[in-house]
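Posting for a labmate who doesn't have an account.
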Amino acid sequence: MCRVGHLDPGSHQRVLMKMGLILLIIGHLNFIAGALVHGTVLRFVVNPQEPISLQYAVTNAASVMSSLLTISCGIAALLLSRCLTLTTLKWGVLALSTSGCLSGLSCLLGLAVSIGMTLGNQGQALLAPCTIANVALAPVPRECPYDPTRVYSSTLSLWAISFLLNSMEIIFSIRCLLLTLSLLHLGRCCCETHRRKVSLQVVSAESPSPRQCFGLLRLNNAETAWL
């Protein structure tokens, strides 16, 4: 954090612009992945009485909301790169980047649980709309809203992409958070306080003690009397 604080304003502008563009791209890609999962599979699977499908829906909705938060943080970082003097915008980027880190972490945990549950039950919750509940209705053909042969692999692939994108969101949100702290001089204050403590310790170690001063004074008096 102290090293970031030594950057000049031009370097801050370039780094913030890069961070803003990266967050915009990652947020849009994550939003598209979440929309594809919801539009192709989850809107047919979600059942409030089924805890597994409900967990799928909540995790996917949280991932979409996290992507929107990342996009907002990217836009705010781009605006801040054009005007570094706005303190209100700095605090806004700080709040958005912090919220993005926390929401990305929660989405990572939710996606990990969803992937683990899907692998554990071999996609039974995803294939629930295509299964026949009553054996007496077995001869009757039942239409499936999607292709059951590809829904398992495609959903897991999209969740894996979302997991990777959420990880990148956390990394670049933390980087944006550190840059904003540097612009607000919060990290520099901590570093200056630490440096002052170190300098005071060095000065106190180099300064002579009272006993040494008294000994030097007696030695000078003895030399003067002898002369």
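Reply:
Got it, the structure tokens are right above this. DSSP finds seven helices and no strands in the chain.
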